[in-house]
Amino acid sequence: MFKLYLIEIRKFIFPEQDSIQYYLFAIHSVLIDYRLAFFLNKNLNIELKRASKDLDISGQDGFYSIFEFEDQDNLLNWNLISNCSHTNSKNEIKESLLFKNTEIELKKHKLMNELNQVDFFLKIEYHTSSINIKKIIKSINEIPNIMSVYNLNLNNIKDKETLKFS
């Protein structure tokens, strides 16, 4: 005797990464990444924390610090990303009888070369339109040692693929 079982199949359609909208702010500052994260947390009432791994973009040299905060109440994801990375490079120079001479060179790399004057990016992904851009910019400008902050026009950025990491 055979039994017939009815199985209900549900199909979940997840939104593509491209459908998640985001704002991208350029920050010019002499602050070190963790100090900037501290002040952003204080002024914007968020909780940025250093990610367990730095951002490593394939095809690029360097690792870029990243701080994250997932605001579940407002459906926002906050990311502070450094636009600058420094790596040491050893250059072998003329060898003497006793010592092998090496020269260490500090190389500076940019995450986004087209925006090489920017020190940090603040990326805010949102699922609702509850973001007040003017208030965010005003709060960031109140931080000591911030030279400028502004919202970037995403249509003018050629290398947006670099920002698809979360």
Helix content: 10-25%
Poorly predicted parts = 10-18
Q: What is the number of helices?
A: 2
- The N- to C-terminal Cα distance equals 53 Å
Order of strands, main sheet, comes to 2-3-4-7-1-8
* Strand coverage percent: 25-35%
Major sheet size, sense and barrel closure: 6 strands, antiparallel
Secondary structural class: mainly beta
Structure summary, number of beta strands: 8
Question: Which descriptors apply to this entry?
Answer:
single chain; mainly beta; globular; 2 helices; 6-stranded antiparallel sheet; two-stranded antiparallel ribbon; 166 residues; 33% strand
Tell me what the structure shows:
The chain is mainly β. The protein is 13% helix and 33% strand. The chain has helices spanning 33-44, 133-141; strands at residues 21-29, 49-50, 66-71, 76-82, 84-92, 102-110, 120-126, 146-151. The strands form two sheets. A six-stranded antiparallel β-sheet has the order 2-3-4-7-1-8, with helices on one face. The radius of gyration is 22 Å and the shape is globular.
Q: In a few lines, what is going on in this structure?
A:
With 166 residues, the chain is mainly beta.
Q: Secondary structure elements and their pairing?
A:
Layout: E1 21-29, H1 33-44, E2 49-50, E3 66-71, E4 76-82, E5 84-92, E6 102-110, E7 120-126, H2 133-141, E8 146-151
Antiparallel strand pairs: 1-7, 1-8, 2-3, 3-4, 4-7, 5-6
